[in-house]
């Protein structure tokens, strides 16, 4: 599969490494010129390339968003229309606080910036070190760390669930973008920032009215 990664920082760079390791073609991008990613891309292997953000969006069958949330208006919305888009961003402020969402969720605000994209919230709950090191490809699902996913497009979620299983996590469908996404985002989400097994995740969701279930990879 061709995967475009928008953002080359801790989460974007780590995700690119995991996808390349799983055998996917990866286009890594950031706000600067592609040649500034030369060394980082060389570490990813022969199936990785550096591109502009717009070209990475065009390249990907699936596109990962890992730029600062506050810069979501700069996303190439037209190139993302109709694409399966993984929103790995959180609504963090530069001062380490959180933006006031005024009753919305971080991914709903991203969806407004990329109308027509098949948006799935995922890869936003773990620090980069855990994302890189906690995946266990080949391990039984019940022994893996959970990767929550939320979205309104069931087919898009199934594709993302398969990718998460490939890189060694147990996909957990938390529901719709609004009701499930809020469970994953910082600022009160019971799954945010935690490396949990399926049983631990289910326990964390008790009392929240969530109906998370293991997604078929």
Instruction: State the strand order across the main sheet.
Output: 3-2-1-4-5-6-7-8-9
| Name of the top-level CATH class | Alpha Beta
Globally, the shape reads globular
Q: Give me the CATH fold name.
A: Rossmann fold
Largest sheet geometry = 9 strands, mixed
- State the distance separating the first and last CA atoms: 15 Å
What string gives the helices and strands in order? Answer: EHEHEHEHEHEHEHEHHE
Query: How many distinct folded domains?
Result: 1
Count of beta strands: 9
**Mean pLDDT over the full residue set:** 94
Structural class: alpha/beta
Query: Could you name the CATH homologous superfamily?
Result: NAD(P)-binding Rossmann-like Domain
The level of helicity is: 25-40%
- What is the percentage of strand-forming residues? 15-25%
Helix count, DSSP H or I runs of 4 or more residues: 9
List the helices and strands and how they pair.
Layout: E1 2-6, H1 10-21, E2 25-29, H2 38-42, E3 48-50, H3 53-59, E4 62-65, H4 77-80, E5 84-87, H5 106-113, E6 118-121, H6 128-133, E7 146-151, H7 154-166, E8 170-175, H8 177-184, H9 198-205, E9 213-214
Parallel strand pairs: 1-2, 1-4, 2-3, 4-5, 5-6, 7-8
Antiparallel strand pairs: 6-7, 8-9
List keywords for this structure.
9 strands, alpha/beta, nine-stranded mixed beta sheet, Rossmann fold, 217 residues
Describe the structure.
With 217 residues, the chain is α/β, with parallel strands linked by helices. The chain has a single domain, classed as Rossmann fold, CATH 3.40.50.720. 33% of the residues lie in helices and 18% in strands. It has 9 helices and 9 strands. Strands 3-2-1-4-5-6-7-8-9 form a 9-stranded mixed sheet, sandwiched between helices. Strand 5, helix 5 and strand 6 (118-121) form a beta-alpha-beta unit. The longest helix is centred in the C-terminal third of the chain and has 13 residues, at 154-166. The protein is globular.
